[in-house]
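[Automated response] Your request has been received and processed.

Submitted sequence:
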Amino acid sequence: MSEITAVTFDLWQTLLLDNRELGRARAQVRLEGTQQALTQSSEEYDLEHIREAYRACFRQCRQIRETGLDLTFRKQVELFINLISPDLVSRLPDPVILDIMRAYSDSFFVHPPIPHADMHSVLKGARDMGLKIGLISNTGMTPGVAFRRFLEENGVLHLFDILTFSDEVKLSKPAPEIFTMTLRSLDATPDQTVHVGDHVENDVVGAKQCGLKTIWIEGFYEREDPSDPRTQPNIAVSGLGSVMPALRTLAA
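Generated structure:
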């Protein structure tokens, strides 16, 4: 068995805990910020109309991510704006687009997710084991730059050797390329690396198909077919606090 030299972590529902109420609150901040920015540019739209464009943007971005790709944050916001009105981006001054991007991004700090209580101790424990640490995250509606700021404010950014965000590399889990590019940055091979995450398809299937070992955090998603070997992790744990014993088992 190869020595374990690296571990990569998912972000949402692994290191950060989120819920629908927080997501809806962030969405409201984005919608109201967008409406305000458009009004200042003499573009008047009802909030419910903007909400429908936002939902359509979410659906289209999800379809793109299901193919293993992603949009840059600016392209995602421009898609949203043009769903409000065709070619609206071309009619808006760049400062207005930047204002909408800020509303999109800063909503994350108005209604932030909850850092897992065990986040710091697990990352520090992995570092104390001598492991290189990476992060592989599908960013959703929040850009990687906001996550970096949040991780720094919570005192853990320095514990990572590499952070791979889907909006920055235009790839999304479970695409193999997003795993392999992260491993290249860590100078680690798949059989030397463990991936930790909550999502069956993105984190277990995605990592396993690249040859990584997997620790699955149960409770957020279910394995639709428990007999499917593709979705069988090396170790399943009940929460982030149980990751260190699992890592030690895989490294033994």
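Summary generated for your ticket: Residues 3 and 252 are 8 Å apart (CA to CA). The mean pLDDT is 97.
If you did not submit this request, please reply to this message.
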